[in-house]
Specification:
Elements (H helix, E strand, L loop, with lengths): L1 E6 L9 H9 L2 E8 L1 H6 L4 H20 L4 E5 L6 H11 L4 E5 L4 H16 L3 E5 L21 H11 L45 H13 L5 H4 L12 H5 L5 H10 L10 H22 L22 H8 L6 H13 L4 H14 L4 H11 L5 H11 L15 H8 L4 H6 L16 H7 L8 H16 L2
Parallel strand pairs: 1-2, 1-4, 2-3, 4-5
Bound molecules: flavin-adenine dinucleotide (FAD).
The site of flavin-adenine dinucleotide (FAD) has 28 residues, from helix 9, helix 11, helix 14 and helix 16.
Length: 472
């Protein structure tokens, strides 16, 4: 039997159910990746993420070559031409089984539905799998069969339903029949134009790199995760998000390896391990929210009353936020981290998103898009979930009247200002006593801007804006 595996955000061999099942049942396997610069632009994919994906595709192609599976890259104008590309390929190579792993998001689901209909109408079998989550989407439900909209009970049910068989992912691949064609990777022109300033040496490509990162993290840092995870200068988190977002490593692999160092206990034992697995469950929670409440992937807030909020728009403030020139060192250093690393520490993502949507009272959708355009780990459901949490428009969100004070956050989580100094060179000589909020004279000397807004007044303005729509 001949099969085709359609790779998307699952660029790996390990724990890849579509590839595994195709290899189990077929003696000849082909692989396809459909590349579309236009589609990436439409979905605000970051330029650094595209480069990361291209680097990973190269290594994926080499691993597939060893199994005699040719990886063919196609150029596409967008999701709409995918059914045609795939049908032509399977017809030209007399293939009648297509394997793929599901993706989340309304556009992706609609594309896959059209692909499946088109292929099935031409007597091609389509086999789909879930590898982004441990439980199939929409199957973790409340007692009366409804999807959860609050994380803690979702997690409780997730743990109740869990058993180790779900992590039965080991599979020994063997070589397929030598293919009748070779991968076109080296001739394919991605026409990639670099427009980012990210230090890509922070993000080495390949699944062996992802696995090494996981194992190194599980060796030591994870045991201090519960206390270190909020301190951006310590860098006490795994930085696996870029690899998870593009599918260079699977969440099941992460959980399985973490459980191995915790006597297979999910909610007891090492605090750091339990807390870290919690975060992977958060990821799954947001994927379920996107699946069960599709409005959140169509630019709509989860809390429908927040549709009526009158967001402000001020071009100067927006530019100051984007460029790390708000005059609040913790916000500006976080935005500089985003620019130079394509990644931002989780605590700071919450701080800058809350500042943007509450103090600046700007629409969360603008911030969400800017993050997607710049994050190497851009993940539609986690990013949307994070922005809607911070702006109090989402499920299980921060109450709208509890607004982080960026200066307090700065003192609590960067007490010596080392993170600020690392990312804002102009402030590198400023004394610890004023690093969180330099005096006007220090700002002048350092050529660092004044604050773009008044924290107290802007906080009240945000609460009023929410009160107005909450009470109507
Ligand atoms: C406004 C905002 C936007 C965000 N955008 C994204 C995004 O585009 N992509 C993304 O992967 N995460 C996003 N997050 C979640 C979180 O900030 C990152 O997953 C985390 O910082 C990644 O670093 P890490 O790999 O070192 O995480 P670790 O702390 O090591 O956690 C392990 C893994 O768990 C998952 N995870 C951790 N925290 C969260 C969380 N709060 N929500 C969902 N999953 C989580 C990630 O996959 C992460 O790699 C966002 C959070 C906020 C507040």
């Amino acid at each position: 039997m001949k099969s085709l595996v359609w790779f998307r955000a699952d660029l790996r061999i390990d724990d890849n159910p579509a590839l595994r099942e195709a290899c189990k049942l077929s003696d000849e396997v082909h692989a396809v990746y459909i590349y579309s610069a236009m589609q990436n632009e439409e979905h605000s994919e970051a330029n650094c993420k595209t480069e990361f994906i291209i680097n990973n595709l190269k290594l994926l192609q080499e691993s597939l070559d060893e199994l005699n599976i040719p990886l063919i890259i196609f150029d596409s104008e967008g999701f709409h031409d995918n059914p045609k590309i795939l049908l032509e390929y399977v017809e030209n190579h007399s293939i009648n089984n297509v394997y793929l792993n599901n993706q989340f998001g309304a556009d992706e689901e609609q594309r896959d539905k059209r692909v499946e209909e088109h292929l099935k109408a031409n007597r091609i079998n389509v086999h789909t799998f879930d590898e982004k989550v441990v439980f199939a989407p929409g199957t973790i439900l409340t007692g009366d069969g409804r999807p959860y909209s609050v994380f803690t009970p979702f997690k409780r049910r997730w743990i109740e339903n869990f058993n180790l068989d779900l992590l039965d992912i080991e599979f020994a691949y063997t070589q397929k029949k030598p293919p009748s064609l070779n991968s076109n990777f080296s001739e394919f022109n991605f026409n990639f134009k670099k427009s980012h300033n990210v230090d890509m040496s922070l993000w080495p490509a390949g699944e062996s790199e992802a696995l090494l990162r996981l194992n190194t993290y599980l060796d030591k840092e994870i045991f201090k995760y519960a206390q270190d995870r909020n301190d951006p200068i310590i860098d006490g988190t795994s930085r696996l998000s870029a690899y998870l977002a593009s599918g260079i490593i699977s969440p099941k692999r992460c959980i399985l390896e973490a459980l191995k160092i915790n006597n297979f206990q999910l909610d007891s034992g090492e605090k750091g391990v339990v807390k870290w697995i919690d975060e992977i469950i958060w990821r799954e929670f947001y994927k379920n929210i996107m699946f069960s409440f599709p409005r959140v992937s169509k630019n709509k807030p989860f809390q429908e009353y927040t549709n009526n909020i009158s967001w402000r728009y001020d071009e100067k403030e927006f530019q100051a936020w984007k460029n790390g020139k708000t005059g609040f060192p913790i916000i500006d250093s976080a935005m500089k981290q985003l620019e130079s690393e394509g990644w931002m520490h989780n605590r700071l993502r919450m701080v800058v998103a809350m500042f943007f949507t509450k103090n600046m009272l700007h629409d969360w959708r603008l911030g969400e898009a800017f993050f997607m355009e710049n994050l190497i780990d851009g993940d539609f459901s986690s990013n949307n979930g994070g922005w809607q949490w911070s702006s109090s428009t989402g499920t299980d969100a921060a109450p709208y009247f509890r607004i982080f004070n960026p200066l307090t956050q700065s003192k609590n989580f960067d007490s010596n200002g080392l993170f600020i100094k690392k990312h804002i060179i102009e402030l590198s000589d400023v004394d610890k006593s004023e690093i969180h909020d330099p005096s006007e004279s220090t700002r002048k000397i350092c050529n660092y801007p004044s604050q773009i807004l008044d924290l107290k007044q802007s906080r009240l303005r945000a609460i009023e804006a929410f009160n107005r729509v909450k009470n109507t």
